[in-house]
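Exercise 7.
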Amino acid sequence: MKKKETVIPIVIGMVFIALIVVLVLIRANHTKKTEERLAEESAAAAVPTAPAAPASDDGELIDYEEKGIITLADYRAFRETTDPKDSDDWLQLLWDDYLAECKISEYPEDLLNEALNDTTRQYYNFAEAAGMSVEELLESYGVDETTINEVAKDSVKGRLVAKTIASKEGFTLDDDKMVTYLMRMMEYGEKDKDTAQNLIKDYLNDYGARPKDDIYIEMVKDILLENNPK
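Solution. The predicted structure, written as tokens, is:
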């Protein structure tokens, strides 16, 4: 056999082998990328995401005392002994002390579940803003599941009490009142002033699931302030 005839089959064989190697490498690379993608998706799935905010409240007034759910303290006779100079948020202390005198016999399940969801979502938002994991945030504040449950219960209690007083006092909400109170609640300046609808959207996104109920809390705080001149 001539030398030329011998070389040709060898070259063809080497090209065939090289082609197989290339195909193997391509497949291996594709498999590696697939595994990495699956690993990333699995890791992403393992990281909890913030629960979605529940639907907005409708501002309906309910006398929960009449339903037997709460025992309301006399808010007109209530007196608070703390000196406003001792706190940067005396009005909140006033509200907290008043709530301590009100009693809750049961927490409506739907409101409590919503408040738990809302409280958890807020911790996720705080963690994201701080560049921390939720676990790191909770640990840094010494917060556990029990704490979250208590915070949620406090939120529900405040709304039950506020809506009962609002019902007794015949409170009404118009756009002007909502703008005033929402700006106070979110600590907005005059430059942030907007329509009631847009402010409600801001509140739902960053603060809580029941802006109208929480406005009633602020309105009731004003009643306590009127009865506690300092």
